[in-house]
């Protein structure tokens, strides 16, 4: 009997495609209201997922996908910080 575990799927807030959780990056709103990138995917707080491409981040900014998923207004400074972190991820 073949019993592989279920693969958790999440929807990208930019392109709106369903992908496996491991392929995506989690953006987190903490209890204090701080918005950070969650590399581990296990921190406490409300999370939104986005593909590992700057294209999807730009789409999420344009369609307010992150704001809708996190249920809060996201300041421009946070978007700039996320773009910097995405640039570092692309280099790796």
Written account of the structure:
This protein is of the alpha+beta class and 92 residues long. The chain is 34% helix and 24% strand. The strands form 2 sheets. It has a 3-stranded antiparallel sheet. Strands 1-2 form a two-stranded antiparallel sheet. It is globular. It starts with 8 loop residues before the first strand and ends with a helix. The model has no long low-confidence stretch (mean pLDDT 89).
Main beta-sheet strand count, sense and barrel state: 3 strands, antiparallel
Q: Average pLDDT value?
A: 89
Question: Between the first and last Cα atoms, what is the distance in angstroms?
Answer: 39 Å
Shape: globular
Binned, the helix content reads 25-40%
Strand segment count: 5
Give the strand order, joined by hyphens, for the main sheet: 4-3-5
- The count of helical stretches stands at 3
Helix-strand topology string = EEEEEHHH
Q: Which percent range describes the beta-strand content? A: 15-25%
Calculate Rg over CA atoms: 14 Å
Structural class, by secondary structure, is: alpha+beta
Q: Segments where pLDDT lies below 50 for 5+ residues?
A: none
């Amino acid at each position: 009997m073949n019993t592989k575990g279920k693969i958790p799927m999440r929807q990208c807030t930019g392109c709106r495609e369903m992908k496996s959780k491991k392929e995506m990056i989690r953006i987190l709103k903490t209890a204090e209201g701080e918005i950070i990138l969650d590399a581990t995917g296990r921190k406490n707080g409300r999370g939104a997922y986005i593909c590992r491409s700057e294209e999807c981040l730009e789409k999420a900014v344009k369609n307010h996908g992150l704001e809708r998923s996190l249920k809060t207004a996201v300041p421009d400074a946070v978007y700039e910080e996320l773009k910097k972190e995405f640039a570092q991820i692309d280099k790796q």
